[in-house]
Write a structure and sequence with these properties.
The protein has four helices and no strands. The longest helix has about 35 residues. Keywords: Signal.
Length: about 120
């Protein structure tokens, strides 16, 4: 029995999975992280702040991975990178670093408020 004819959907899914895994990192999309929600320190519970701390840490780790991906993409483009591509990558990089700083400052501010209220 011909496996392709017997299970065409499974075969297609397997081919798709293998092709996605074989995409070079420079061509794979760099996934921008989503900002975590940070509760108000004035009204948050201890559990809320611990959860926010974990979410902020996960966000910062994901953001660092995103920055690394952007650097790799730029390196992969090499001398063939256009001015527009370089500008776009630089803008994304700078924007992400600024948001990382903002998220960290906001969490630290709310943590100080939480500690005062406790």
């Amino acid at each position: 029995m011909d496996l392709i004819k017997a299970c065409p959907l499974r075969f297609t899914a397997a081919v798709l999975a293998v092709s996605l895994l074989s995409i070079p990192p420079a061509r794979a999309a760099c996934e921008s992280p989503r900002e975590p929600a940070i509760p108000s320190g004035a009204s948050a519970s201890s559990e809320d702040m611990v959860g926010a701390q974990r979410n902020v840490q996960a966000y910062l780790e994901h953001a660092q991975t995103y920055l690394t991906c952007l650097k790799k993409r730029e390196a992969a483009l090499g001398d063939g990178i256009s001015d527009a591509q370089q500008e776009m990558l630089m803008k994304r990089y700078i924007d992400t670093v600024e948001v990382m700083e903002t998220v960290s400052k906001r969490f630290n501010r709310e943590m100080r408020v939480f500690k005062k209220a406790s």
